[in-house]
Amino acid sequence: MNRKVSLIKNLDWMTIMLYAILVFLGWINIYAAVYNEDHQSIFDATQRYGKQLMWIGAAIFIAIIILTIESKFYSAFAYPTLILMILLLLAVLTFGVKVNGARSWFELGAIRFQPAEFAKFATNLAIARYLSQHNFKIHRLKSLAVTGLILFTPAVLILMQNDTGSALVYSVFILVLYREGLSGFVLFLALLAAIFFVFTLIYSSFTVSILILIIAAISLKTIGIQTKQIAIATAMLAGSFGTLWLINKGTNFQLGNFSLVVISILLNTIPFLIYTYRQKIKKAALVLLLVIGSLFYTFSVSYIFDTVLESHQQQRINELLGIKSDPYGTGYNVNQSKIAIGSGGFNGKGFLNGTQTKFNFVPEQSTDFIFCTVGEEWGFLGSALVLLLHLSLILRLIYLSERQRSSFSRIYGYGVAAILFFHVAVNVGMTIGLAPVIGIPLPFFSYGGSSLWSFTILLFIFLRLDANRLELLR
Amino acid sequence: MNNYSNRKFIVGGIFAFVILIFIIRLFNLQIIDDQYKLSAESNSQRRVTQYAARGLIYDRNGELLVYNQAAYDLMIIPRQVKTFDTLDFCYLLGIDKEDLIHRIQKAKKHSWYRSSIFIKQLSSERYAVLQEKLYKFPGFFVQTRTLRKYPHHNAAHTLGYLGEVNDRNIKKDDYYTQGDYIGKNGIENTYEEILRGVKGLKVYWVDVYNRIKGSFHDGKLDRDAIEGQDIKTTLDINLQEYGEKLMQNKKGGIVAIEPKTGEILVKLSSPGYDPEMFVGRAMSKNYRELANNDTLKPLFDRSMMATYPPGSIFKLVNALIALQEGIITPYTRIKCQNGYHAGSFTMGCHPHKSPVDLKESVQISCNAYYAQTFRDILDAPRFNSINESYTNWRRHVTSFGFGEKLGTDLPNELTGFIPTANYYNKVIRTRNWKSLNVVSLAIGQGELSITPLQMANMVACVANRGYYYTPHIVKSIGSNNSIDPKFLKKNKTTIDPSYFEPVIEGMDLVVHGGEGSTGRSSAIKDIRVCGKTGTVQNPHGDDHSVYVAFAPKDDPKIAIVVYVENGVWGARYAAPISGLMIEKYLKGEISENKKYLEKKMLEADLIKEQEIKKVQLKKESSHE
């Protein structure tokens, strides 16, 4: 009895309130999105809104069970849970049914269930467990390797189900690792890689190589190398590039400008280092290494893009970056989505008055594109409010995580925040044309039991851990 | 607790930053950029034009002349077209795949979002089959239109036809939009605004499959179409039909007017065409064919647009002017010695008794009588100059409606030409020209040109003994009987009514004068017909045959002109045709003793005759 009282007292009710508001708003938006004149009751269980209410009921039930389970259980059973989930992911590859091209569903009678959704909390538990161990040292190769194994195993299995969106979620753990001491340089490199990727697709490899060299020159300057020396290096580079260009013109090699830049740099590297930068050779070498690395990365981007990505993925990226636009083909979804959201104006058309979503102009409107209904019916006010509610929840989770004494709880909390953030960012980003079309749900809003339960489980395990934060350090 | 605790700010900052970017983007999408609101409207609204049923057209006896027939335009909105079974679709529409692709591309070029016509005027059979399957072809829908239908295949020139509006129509009146129909000629044209009604609009919500989801804003933007008003014309379609039959294989025109009202009973131009030819999809092809490839110019409305010299029928006018001016009395007798001779000038005349008085001059159409009288009019001592006297003469002439538009309610009326004194001043290069210079005007030749409608109007003036009502084609509009008041205004000629009687007596003699009367073939048992023949010299071939008449003499119910090109002389074709027309109108049928005449007229083929003559002439000239 006493324990129960303290549990209720120690629960973070603010988080629960934010959760409840989001779930409620999600429900009425599903009602608006698939509103059907013949089935006006929001409780009609033959319709998606009625079903969502059933899923919500089940979610509350799940939440209560999670809260009644002893908190020690979660760290203790972290690994078995992950192993179970991995087995389920393997099983779904063989026994699962295909929905929308992804083999990621189990079908039990009328109920469909998506193991990838539940792999998230299992992975998060395992990561929290592993990172909180005493012998974990983030810059040790073994530690990184195990971390990588925990993250990549489910990610790869999900990728094999052809569910790219859910697999990409695992990349967000880089933020958790960063919080736990991963060098900021890695984060910087990841950012750089993303920027180069985009630039290479939009502009030519040659342009990007020039950009890389400019960045290198600035880096050299900041690590204390004199302008004069940089100028000499630039002149040498330009000289060899010019010579090579003329040779290339006169012979039959037919190399592209990008190759010429790479060869010039390789030719100049050794004299560069020996000749110019005796004192700061280590830092200069690092910069040079980065330059060469970037160039090879740039070179491989088009290769990756052309061979690794599938054509619909290529098209979606091309559409996003505005390289190729086809508002009635690949770009149809996003275009209609933008029209729906854009037509909402400042305060929206009002509940159930959306025309674009109600008349099915936007595809997948109750699942991946549910944000369109928000944007159209509630306008800028409503959509900003939904985003701010999500942000508040995420920031609240960070705040709660930081107050944990147990690093297991903290890491787990960061994981929840990061996963929620990734979903919000990619889902909303997709509907407003800032992210490529990747089918992942908007937490608490998108129709579907699996995703709602998955987020509920993620969140309430953390709340359960948080309620016990004052207990012994584990 | 942890070395990296401060990183919470960086991680939290990243989260907040991304959300902030999103909110800025939303602000841009939802508040600053209007483009999306407009797209949303065009996405989900369908504006459907409600075409008003066009007014019907009746003849004077309530016989239906023009009515509507439903037609179905298949429309396309390219944006909404999804992949579909092209084979089935092509089969349903009876087109091939190439055509299909071509049509889709044309529609795309026009607009992605807006509907355009995919196939015009599907037959109702095709529509019936298509309608059931249309749901399989999103992006296509059917718009109902009305086409004209003609129970009688006559009076094409008068009724006019409908055609698609052109850029000029749209520019002139913003009521019209691309694809609308407008009256292009005849009554359809002059009474366009009455017949067309007002088209309405219905705005619907539609979903992505273009299915109607309800009325837009509860129909706030909707307007009901207002039906066009019906028109009752003055035409007698039976008489018109009969006239067209009599005129088959002949070039020319007939105009018949009810003198007491100015109502046009018959107005025809031969050869004509079947008004059905200008309905629907075949129209443009048929139009091109008739306009470019038919040497007989069937589109040319000879009744109002052909201007002929009037010939001898103009003597009636000159006789009336001479009486009015006091140049002659009914008893004035003038000698004719096989024509009129003045110095070296001779105007020939056929042999007849001499001298003749006014009546007889009309009866036998004596050239000398009118040459002398006309010169006397111009040379009358009370005028100081030929300019003055000629202008006075011309004033009398134009009071019959010559030389300017009568102002009828049909388009494309021509003025004809009555030369002014100034015209002769220029042509003859002196202001002091002599009456002899223009003496051919005495017998309706020379520079005069007059339309058959004007000739008919002149006969109406004579029948009315001095006045006319502007000839018009519409008897009543809609349910009210009012017509343009200008058609109720009596136009008086400059001739005193008393002067008409002797001229009419002459016209009576033309028909009933026995030997030498040129209009005997127009006589009808029990009905007193008054007429006047004319033969118009034609330098290009056989002379034209013209005949004017009215009947009954004492209570004229019909005034008619028949003009037969290459009809040789008035008595040969124009007079009998007039007689048959009058009899048909007044009696309803042709009496037994005239059946042979009717048959002769129906069978006469002047067009073939002319062709044969032309060929012969060519042969002869090639022998020389």
Automatic annotation (TrEMBL), chain A:
Give the membrane topology: Multi-pass membrane protein
Q: Which Pfam families match?
A: FTSW_RODA_SPOVE
User: Biological process GO annotation list?
Assistant: cell division; cell wall organization; peptidoglycan biosynthetic process; regulation of cell shape
What keywords tag this UniProt record? Cell membrane, Cell shape, Cell wall biogenesis/degradation, Glycosyltransferase, Membrane, Peptidoglycan synthesis, Transferase, Transmembrane, Transmembrane helix
Please name the InterPro entries in this protein's record.
Answer: Cell_cycle_FtsW-rel_CS, FtsW/RodA, RodA/MrdB
Q: Report the locations given in the UniProt record.
A: Membrane
One GO molecular-function entry? lipid-linked peptidoglycan transporter activity
- PROSITE patterns documented for this protein: FTSW_RODA_SPOVE
Q: Write out the GO cellular component annotations.
A: cell division site; plasma membrane
User: What sections of the protein cross the membrane?
Assistant: 12-32, 52-69, 76-97, 141-160, 167-189, 195-218, 230-247, 253-277, 284-305, 378-399, 411-438, 444-465
**NCBIfam families registered for this protein in UniProt:** rodA_shape (TIGR02210), RodA_shape (NF037961)
Q: What is this protein called?
A: Cell wall polymerase
Supply the source organism for this entry.
Ancylomarina salipaludis
Q: Which gene encodes it?
A: rodA
UniProtKB/TrEMBL annotation, chain B:
Q: Does the keyword Protein biosynthesis apply?
A: no
Q: Boundaries of each Penicillin-binding protein dimerisation domain copy?
A: 50-213
Q: Quote the cellular component terms of the Gene Ontology held in the record.
A: plasma membrane
Membrane spanning stretches = 9-27
The protein's UniProt keywords, in alphabetical order, are: Carboxypeptidase, Cell inner membrane, Cell membrane, Cell shape, Cell wall biogenesis/degradation, Hydrolase, Membrane, Peptidoglycan synthesis, Protease, Transmembrane, Transmembrane helix
Topology in the membrane?
Single-pass membrane protein
**Can you cite a GO biological process for this protein?**
cell wall organization
* Protein location: Cell membrane; Membrane
Which residue ranges does the record assign to the Penicillin-binding protein transpeptidase domain? 252-577
GO molecular function terms attached to this record: penicillin binding; peptidoglycan L,D-transpeptidase activity; serine-type D-Ala-D-Ala carboxypeptidase activity
Q: Which InterPro entries match?
A: Beta-lactam/transpept (IPR050515), Beta-lactam/transpept-like (IPR012338), PBP_dimer (IPR005311), PBP_dimer_sf (IPR036138), PCN-bd_Tpept (IPR001460), Penicillin-binding_protein_2 (IPR017790)
Show the SUPFAM superfamilies listed in the entry. Answer: beta-lactamase/transpeptidase-like, Penicillin binding protein dimerisation domain
Which Pfam families does the record match to this protein? Answer: PBP_dimer, Transpeptidase
NCBIfam families, A to Z: pbp2_mrdA (TIGR03423)
Q: What is this protein called?
A: Penicillin-binding protein 2
Organism lineage string:
Bacteria, Pseudomonadati, Bacteroidota, Bacteroidia, Marinilabiliales
